[in-house]
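Subject: for your reference before the review

Hello V.,

The reviewers asked for a structural picture of the protein, and I figured it would be easier to keep everything in one thread rather than splitting it across files. Below is the amino acid sequence we used in the manuscript, unchanged from the supplementary table.
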Amino acid sequence: MGEALPAEVVEEIVARALAEDVGAGDITTEATIPEAARARAVILAKQEAVVAGLPLVAAVFQRLDPRVAVEPVSQDGGRVAPGDVVARLEGRARALLTGERTALNFLQHMSGVATLAARYAEAVEGTGARVLDTRKTIPGLRALDKYAVRMGGAHNHRMGLFDAVLIKDNHIRAAGGVSAAVERARAAAPEGAVVEVEAQNTAEVKEAVCSGADVILLDNMTPEEVKRAVALIAGRAKTEVSGGITLKTVRSYAECGVDYISVGEITHSARAVDFSLEFLERENG
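And here is what came back from the structure prediction:
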């Protein structure tokens, strides 16, 4: 399913999330629940989904109280049905109550991304095309969004502006054309860097091929236009399509023979998955 989330990333994001939600303290829980009270709880799935975010769930509760036990029953990348237990929790009731919303927020959002990514990946099975995410992520949470995409079985495009060359339409206009932009990128990019350039019509596709781009991004084209572009490129560069692609249309693009399909919807419009945290019992200590 791809690389795990770095522990330092999890800790930094969880710390920010708890600072935002808890602030100086959970005044409701502290007023109503004895400090020594203990409880057991479960996190339940309320719908079919692909799970992502369990490392964040554990980190939330253990940051509030390292003695809280978090036992995952499912795993990231696994599938759940309504009523399935995703994780079991045991520890101080205050910590479970205070961390509930933050933990569920991570789990619901990330599982939503993973679930939608899985639907796209399944839609292109057997075609040879790979579904990619984009940089259309929640600011500050890109590592989580891209991890969730991997858990769903889709793939990551570049992480940011720093790790790949992708020349888009405004770069081309500012540089004075496709060839000029690719030539400058070749001269300035790190050795071995893949150079990708966007093309929106046949003329730009031809220019992209002649410029020696490694990947040509066919943007906002119909499947028929993509087929013609792929035939014109004839294997001289990898091909990617993007722009307005949906679950209904993604397979028609995949069947055009492209290598990659990038879909912003996976991260910018994934619907949160419904989970709940349910207390099983309360023990007075």
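For the response letter, the relevant points are probably these. The CA atoms of residues 191 and 278 lie 54 Å apart. The radius of gyration is 23 Å.

Happy to draft the paragraph if you're swamped.

O.
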